[in-house]
Amino acid sequence: MRIITIILVALILLLQYPLWLGKGGWMKVREFGQQLEVEKQANQKIHERNALMDAEVRDLKQGTEAIEEHARSKMSMIKQGEVFFQFTENQPAPASAVVETPPALPSRD
């Protein structure tokens, strides 16, 4: 009777091995599920980026406002007759940009 029990336990263990550690076992399914979630997140980001690019392409094809905005922001273009003002914060000039002038010579009047 004892030998039959050992054989049955060994048989059950042999049947359980592929379920847990085999090619299509639970561990692999869980690992593939995690990889699938990572890929879904990456695809979602790509879909959002594509939607933004699609909207920009439609704007460029249909309207001149988008073209004008693109030219102004990316290429620093201005309309004819406009005056361009650029405001910068007061920051000290870098040491390499500071040019010292030599002292003036006394005049011989």
Automatic annotation (TrEMBL):
Cell compartment(s), UniProt: Cell inner membrane
Segments traversing the membrane: none
A GO cellular-component term linked to this record: cell septum
Domain of life (superkingdom): Bacteria
Topological region Cytoplasmic: 1-3
A Pfam short name: DivIC
Topology versus the membrane: Single-pass type II membrane protein
Keywords for this protein: Cell cycle, Cell division, Cell inner membrane, Cell membrane, Membrane, Transmembrane, Transmembrane helix
GO BP term, pick one: FtsZ-dependent cytokinesis
Periplasmic compartment residues: 22-109
Main localisation: membrane
Keyword field contains Cell membrane: yes
Similarity comment: Belongs to the FtsB family.
Functional description taken from the UniProt entry: Essential cell division protein. May link together the upstream cell division proteins, which are predominantly cytoplasmic, with the downstream cell division proteins, which are predominantly periplasmic.
Assembly and interaction partners: Part of a complex composed of FtsB, FtsL and FtsQ.
Name the UniProt record assigns to this protein: Cell division protein FtsB
